[in-house]
Amino acid sequence: MPDLACTESGVLTVGNKTVFWERFGTGERETVCLLNGLAMHTKAWYPFVPRLYPDFDVLLFDYPGQGESSSEDEPVEIPEIAGYLVMILNRLGLERIHAVGVSYGGFIALEFARLFQDRLHTLTLSGILLTGETLFQMYEALSLRFYRAGPEAFELYTHYMYEKIFGEDFVRAIGPANLEPMRQRFVDRYQARVHSLIRLTEAQDPFFAALDANLDDYRAIRTPTLIMPGAEDRAIPPWVQGKIAGILPDTRCLPIEGSGHVVYLEKPDIFWPALRRFAERKSTDF
After folding, report:
1. Is 29 inside any structural domain?
2. In a domain, 43, yes or no
3. Is 120 contained in some domain?
4. Which residues form the domain of 38?
């Protein structure tokens, strides 16, 4: 939607980092915060903002290394990124949000819920896990090997990644050739700053290392939570995502048939209406 423009935007400065944010709306309505996947940036959400706005305000921000945020080659932590969101909410005078975390954004959403659940109306997750899984650890290690192996290996990895994350329905509908522009945009965004992907991926290690220590905190999250796994997700299978329902007490799991890892993109006519109903009712009984 080329005519879509945010209502306001700004930059949060924390030490030597700058964090870019933008908002659709003025704070008069409840706010949905869409949390980026690893290789996303705020503009990637623009085609979907009209699915929510103007009935809801929409808040977006880039993590360090993404989009218009700064891209230092230094460690970043997932709780730190969740803390940036609190700073943005405080700047905008927002008490609570509906947090939507897809893929990597789910890590941010879960940490935000663990640390700041009083700032949440609802929590929606898709393509994420909250348990230590050997196959996911192997996938993470393989990704880091590709990132660190130079430009040729990085480009090869982007072919592998796009083949892996989508479901059969989506690829058949758009045609494999139409994946190429998407893949090339990913390469163009990150080929000069692959270190950002490395740093964000490395941040998952302390997150998983602390799972057992933080388990009671996760079990204490009373925020209504909706999980929408893709039934054909090969990156994080639905049975892995469903384990979250055994940890967070007020959770509904709604598997989306015919979708791979990127449900909001592959099955938008299911994902976004379900999200709206959930946010409107603030209950897993929707």
Report:
1. yes
2. yes
3. yes
4. 8-133+206-281
Distance (Å, whole) CA 264 – CA 228: 9
Collapse the DSSP code of 64 into the 3-class scheme (helix H, G, I; strand E, B; otherwise coil) and give the result: coil
Query: Tell me, what CATH number does 274's domain have?
Result: 3.40.50.1820
Q: What is the pLDDT of residues 120-148, one digit of tens each?
A: 999 999 999 999 999 999 999 999 999 99
Strands 97-102 and 31-35: parallel
Asked if residue 123 belongs to a domain, the reply is yes
Question: Which residues pair with residue 251 across a beta bridge?
Answer: 225
3-state class (DSSP) for residue 14: strand
User: What's the residue count for the chain?
Assistant: 286
Count up the domains in the chain and report the number: 1
**Tens of pLDDT along 33-59?**
999 999 999 999 999 999 999 999 999
How far is the C-alpha of 239 from the C-alpha of 244, rounded, in Å?
10
Q: Give yes or no for a contact between 78 and 208, defined as CB atoms under 8 angstroms apart.
A: no
By three-state DSSP, how is residue 35 classified? strand
Q: Which residues contact 239 (CB under 8 A, 6 or more apart)?
A: none
Instruction: Give the predicted TM-score (pTM) of the model.
Output: 0.97
